[in-house]
């Protein structure tokens, strides 16, 4: 028998497992709303025009790039999320390394925390990482893979289909120990599509300061949520301006449509007493042992777009187009349900932002949609609004109507 005979199969990834079922379904009029990737109004993947343009420029070479990635890309990424005039950047308190998209930024950040985050001398146990309930399915696995323990904080109210502001603040105040790491979705919370209001962000910041929590922002949708890069960076910038130390993971998968190119960045925003060169060198050591150095192609494309004013404008225009199409799908779906007099309040569909809507459908209804209507979404009731088109909205609305009546 093989050396590996004893190896059990890993449970399938809940999202990719659904995508597999979709692929196997022979029905022509099937609809995949399970994956988080933008589709155009014909349901096709699309390459941004500005990305196509930059792709015409041949790569200068295929040499290795440094462990920390392309430095002009790293600087531009930090500026994009923290703001042109961020004092942390002016004061050289920011360390940024290129990463394998958002997941890689979280993973390298997690590894660094495992090695170096020992904030409480009275307690030898490592601080826990708190992620929202619910959160992106991979968060727990990424932090646990680095050896960290993960717990959850209250985030969502399934009755209102909105952020449970009171529950969230109480949980942070009463149940999350000081010095814990807290993961915050910068905007367009996945999977719920429900974000804190600006007021609530300010209250969260106050608790973070009181409890001395270490914030790890996950920014996977900047510019893609509202169409406005500045607006989607509100929370990160608010926290940066308070002067606290924090980590930020950035992904350029959605906002530049560079999914498979794996373009991202990890930033440490430090205090002025922080040994930034030491932090940078330890991040490089982690990267070296994990994958040596990051891929060049996607970061070169992003670097050109971020550093060229004309290309940057073109990108912003496309962000507006993509986010407007998604918002339009929300509106059409909402109107379609209202016109069918589908029982229930569906206003959360237009209130939520970003790629996803947490429809409020339960697992049984989701299975019914899959088996009867060939519509695929994750069992938590999350549907990708970016996967809808004018043609498929009526089909989805009919199916929801059928499932809930
Ligand atoms: N974080 C959140 C909240 C996400 O939704 C995603 C992607 O779906 C990611 C991180 C990471 O994606 P990627 O590694 O493709 O950048």
UniProtKB/TrEMBL annotation:
Annotated keywords: Aminotransferase, Pyridoxal phosphate, Transferase
InterPro entries per record: Aminotransferase_I/II_large (IPR004839), Asp_trans (IPR000796), NHTrfase_class1_PyrdxlP-BS (IPR004838), PyrdxlP-dep_Trfase (IPR015424), PyrdxlP-dep_Trfase_major (IPR015421), PyrdxlP-dep_Trfase_small (IPR015422)
Domain of life of the native organism: Eukaryota
SUPFAM superfamilies per UniProt: PLP-dependent transferases (SSF53383)
Pfam family, one: Aminotran_1_2
Residue ranges of domain Aminotransferase class I/classII large in the record: 28-400
Catalytic activity: L-aspartate + 2-oxoglutarate = oxaloacetate + L-glutamate
Transferase as UniProt keyword: yes
GO molecular function, one term: L-aspartate:2-oxoglutarate aminotransferase activity
Cofactor(s) listed: pyridoxal 5'-phosphate
One BP term from GO: amino acid metabolic process
Protein EC: 2.6.1.1
The protein's assembly and partners: Homodimer.
PANTHER family given in the database record: ASPARTATE AMINOTRANSFERASE, ASPARTATE AMINOTRANSFERASE, MITOCHONDRIAL
Miscellaneous field: In eukaryotes there are cytoplasmic, mitochondrial and chloroplastic isozymes.
Similarity section: Belongs to the class-I pyridoxal-phosphate-dependent aminotransferase family.
Annotated protein name in UniProt: Aspartate aminotransferase
Organism expressing this protein natively: Galdieria yellowstonensis
């Amino acid at each position: 028998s093989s050396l590996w005979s004893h190896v059990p199969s890993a449970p399938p990834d809940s999202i990719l497992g659904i995508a597999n079922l979709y692929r196997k379904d022979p029905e022509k009029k099937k609809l995949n709303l399970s994956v988080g990737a933008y589709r155009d109004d014909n349901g096709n993947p699309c390459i941004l025009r500005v990305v196509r343009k930059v792709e015409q420029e041949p790569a200068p070479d295929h040499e290795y790039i440094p462990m920390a990635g392309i430095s002009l890309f790293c600087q531009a990424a930090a500026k994009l999320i923290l703001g042109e005039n961020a004092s942390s950047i002016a004061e050289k308190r920011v360390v940024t390394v290129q990463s394998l998209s958002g997941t890689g930024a979280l993973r390298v950040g997690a590894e660094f925390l495992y090695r170096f985050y020992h904030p409480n001398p009275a307690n030898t146990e490592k601080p826990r990482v708190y992620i929202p309930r619910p959160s992106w399915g991979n968060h727990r696995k990424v932090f646990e893979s680095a050896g960290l323990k993960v717990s959850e904080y209250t985030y969502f109210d399934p009755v209102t289909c909105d952020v449970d502001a009171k529950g969230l603040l109480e949980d942070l105040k009463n149940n999350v120990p000081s010095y814990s790491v807290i993961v915050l979705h910068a905007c367009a919370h996945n999977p719920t599509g429900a974000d804190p209001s600006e007021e609530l962000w300010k209250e969260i910041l106050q608790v973070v300061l009181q409890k001395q929590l270490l914030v790890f922002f996950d920014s996977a949708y900047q510019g893609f949520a509202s169409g406005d890069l500045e607006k989607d960076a509100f929370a990160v910038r608010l926290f940066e301006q308070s002067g606290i130390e924090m980590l930020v993971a950035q992904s350029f998968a959605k906002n530049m449509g560079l999914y498979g190119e794996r373009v991202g960045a990890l930033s440490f925003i430090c205090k002025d007493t922080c040994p930034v060169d030491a932090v940078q060198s330890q991040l490089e050591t982690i990267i070296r042992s994990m994958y040596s150095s990051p891929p060049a192609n996607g970061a070169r494309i992003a670097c050109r777009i971020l550093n060229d004013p004309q290309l940057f404008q073109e990108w912003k225009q496309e962000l507006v187009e993509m986010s407007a199409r998604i918002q339009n799908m929300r509106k059409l779906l909402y109107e379609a349900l209202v016109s069918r007099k589908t029982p229930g309040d569906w206003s959360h569909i237009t209130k939520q932002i970003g790629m996803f809507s947490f429809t409020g459908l339960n697992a049984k209804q989701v299975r019914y949609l899959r088996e009867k209507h060939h519509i695929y979404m994750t069992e938590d009731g999350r549907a990708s609004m970016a996967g809808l088109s004018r043609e498929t909205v009526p089909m989805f609305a009919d199916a929801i109507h059928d499932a809930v009546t």
